[in-house]
Amino acid sequence: MQFGIGQPVRREEDPRFITGQGRYTDDHVPDRLGHACFLRAPVAKAVIRSIDTGAARALPGVLAVYTAADTAALGPMPILVPKLRQLERADGSPMPIPERRAISGERIVHLGEIVAMVVAESRSAARDAVELIELDLEEQAPAATLARALEPGAPPVWDEAPDNVAFTVRMGDEARVEAALGEAAHVALVEIPVNRLAMSPMEPRGGLGEFDPATGRYTLTSGHQNPHDLRDIFCDDVFRIGRDRLRVISPDMGGSFGMRADSSPELALVLFAAGKLGRPVKWIADRSECFLADPHGRDEVMRVRLGLDAEGRFTALRIDVAAALGAYFTFFSPLPTFGNLPGCAGPYRTPAIYGEVRGVFTNTTPIAPYRGAGRPEASLAIEHAIDVAARELGLDRGELRRKNLISPDAMPFQTGLTFNYDSGDFGRVLDRALELADVAGFEQRRQEAANRGRALGLGIASTVEQAAGLFDEAAELRFEADGSVTMAMGTHSHGQGHETTFKQVLHQQLGVPFEKIRFVQGDTDLVAYGHGTGGSRCSGLGGSALVRAADGIIDKGKEIASHLFEAAVADVRFEGGRFTVAGTDRSLTLDEIARAAHERDDLPDALKGGLAADGRFKHDGPTFPNGCHVAEVEVDPETGTTQLLRYTAVGDYGTVLNPLLLEGQVHGGIVQGVGQILMEDLDYDPDSGQLRTGSFMDYTMPRADGVPFIRFASEPAPTPKNPLGVKGVGESGTVGSMPAVMNAVVDALAPYGVRTIAMPATPHRVWQAISRAAGTKEAAD
Hints:
single chain, alpha+beta, five-stranded mixed beta sheet, 28 strands, 24% strand
């Protein structure tokens, strides 16, 4: 079997995971371990009058109880956006940035905020002690939902933002777009509420802090997407120590989806406690704590207007977004609220686009990037508006899209809002998807469903997203004398199969067999540099850095070979793991060159000391994966139950490194989008700010029996932005599935007079929409 780029190699990681040999944060159990538990705010907004920890401290087994006064020397949790762009409120004043302390001492601004920490000899003792802490609160009215926070006279989350609007970002030429909409032959208008989600990885969050008094060094073990970045911001901003004094180890990790990119207060606190107590301290969240305190995803309302001329060509698009932030900024927020808004341009030629985003404080758990980080919302906005326009004008949805697609010969293409697309054949992708989905046979299937008393709906979504737009990436290669190699990557896998993919790239470049490659990631002592995972960046940036490191190995190998061959460097060739001299049969293997680099004394000093090379790579701009998804759903109008019957996804992800892993990534993303549209919902009571969906008893997750076989195809148009031609895939499934499934549900409900529906389209909500459209009394009750 071949093992290079493009081959369907099974994941190297799987045997140890499926045999229980994975090593996650909670598997690290050092001696003298202390267990941490947090007292979390029981209300959404309050002034803390007093906190009494006496009974908790006196409980047997308790090692320490910490409050805000104990952790006052720690700096606030850092955020990234002010370093990238200074945001402003609508009046031009600077965006207020509330200080998020590790432990809150004066006020509570969201349910689940940390107000005390207990460390004990056992988890049970720590939990018991937390129950003994007495908290005296002056409870206040919260602004617990986006709608409530924007009401006139709503209580402010922060005094610095009396209207609860933290910032306003404007993109595009508003006057031009308004003029074009005013002249349009037709304007489709739709308002889309995007609900709040729990990220719900398989492995709950956790962290293990350790301190070595002999060296003065801390070690944090925690599944984190960006271990080097976490080390740097904790050292620089929170603990204010040299970066050499903190080691971050990110072990195996059961999913992340953006949540584990945050600079979590809990992680700072286990380090703080370890330093104070001189013994390891670990915290592992339970599932109820995850719902309450993990960063949440999405939560916004989009108002979309799409203008068309008499021939059905798009003339202008305007999107106004109100996006919930929660009570604080997380590390990457508020970037997802506006950073990917230009994706609303989609694969279309719309000449004028304007977007306006308001970030809104709410008395809720903070929002963080969630798979797609604004991309699915942007695609949902344009794709849902296109379906509304097609329905209002009596046009075929596929043909309306095709009429407005950017042609391949127009590449590179400057969209109406910021993005410049580098490559892609959007029409080919659309046609392939419609063919695989058998859209031509849909009306017959719709009639057959109607004969059974069911409503069938078809949803189409043509999408483009930006990928790999932030930071550079690094790779290191270190050969031993026997030809084995350590491959240290600055990216980080939390389920994507990086070990396999990067071994394929290295095998392709250098011919090294898999069994001689040692893969290293997620340890700031073993990997010199990196920015981890996020935004579909790893294969393009990390893979390209690996190519550059491999090129460095080849270059140094040629110099060593030229010395051993007594030939000119220009005459040395490398192919298939072997160095040769042009025009001769003389050759040396890469293993022999590696041994020479370690052992030959007659080499020049610059070539001695082993065979090693580093590589870094950064795009000159983002890449743009694109695709077309087609969903087919069946609705029972008597019960509101919706079943996803058929699903097709065709995508252009650039060069395919491993088709098995590519398809797996797309499948996972699709299911997450399906979950949001049909069932997942984090729901706060608007009056009290209490969480009404705080467990899997109330928060519904997709299951295998609710997802059909997914038809999948790849139509690659490699990007010129990196040497591999890779565009990225991590977010693409969700970017396509949210609009495709939403459009399918609304299409099924359209004959009943339903124009749109809020997500998730639960049976109760679907039944209500049908009944409300029919004017029945039951729907109003």
